[in-house]
Design a protein that fits this description.
It is built from three helices and six strands, in the order H-H-E-E-H-E-E-E-E. By secondary structure, it is of the alpha+beta class. The chain starts with a helix and ends in a 20-residue tail after the last strand.
Amino acid sequence: MNSVEINVGFEIREIIERYLYSFDSRNVDLLSSCFTDDADGKFFSGDPNEIVLKGRRMIADYFLNSPSPRASNHTLCNMHLRINGETAEADAFGTTHRVSMEGEVFVRGLRYKSGLILTNEGWRISNFIHTVLWQHNALAVVPHIPTSGRYSSGTADPT
């Protein structure tokens, strides 16, 4: 792999990371900027029906107007790239933690298969398949943040 291929790989990874970040930050304009105008995609959430999306605005609106989690955090785990001049294919795995408004935590394993093209603005996703591979649920726990010292709950230091 030469330095140009390495740089292209970083640029493509940045688009995939921007896609994940914009979802977590609920930024519709940033999410929309990840896609070509005529992008299309399929989303599989575990339901037997797929959701088909056409166009960058429809894609962004779907993800950001679907029932909003109280919080979410997507992490890109690993990715395989195939670069062919001004087109590329990315096959990535990731995880997400989503906390519902009711306090339930959904931990999901995800797969993102994306076709990308090099545009005047840089690399953009032109098509994708977003698949939920697995999920487990748990109840959210309110975090305890000590106000001072190593332990501030009034209990003795166990060490």
